[in-house]
Amino acid sequence: LFAVVRMTQSVLPGMIERRAGKIINISSVLGRLATPFNGVYASSKFALEGMSEAMSHEVSPFGVHVALVEPGLFETGFQRNMARAARADDPDLAYAPYVQRYNARHQTYDRLSSDPVKVAKVIHKIIRSRRPALRHPVGLESHAGIMGSRLLPGRLFQWMLGRATMR
User: Fold this and answer.
1) Residue numbers annotated as active site
2) In this model, does residue 45 exceed pLDDT 80?
């Protein structure tokens, strides 16, 4: 988040001066809904979403557009490269069975990952667009998760998310 803020502070004055430009921030479906054991990552994406939404209002009078790309599952090596808490897999912890089920389910989801070229195509479309929308979900699970979180009653959606990820 802080790198995005610094980069935006660097490029935005020139865009405002030219009265044109696009800021494209790469968020995640987890910027709209949080899944178990991804709280820190989701919170950074929630913050990016909020900052981008506010900024889109602030800079639109100057001809600058802000867009968020919200990918779901894509094969990027993200899971293999993410940092994990030292005791995350400690079998003595109370939530160990939930972590084990989450990890087992996530391996299944990894097989559903899409080609990241789809994300690149969405970014290309935003670049070429005269007036891009603020949010751009990418991938079936991104669209389904966002739609489910908006249309289903909160408790039902949370129960379904828990069932899909760790129960």
Assistant:
1) 41
2) yes
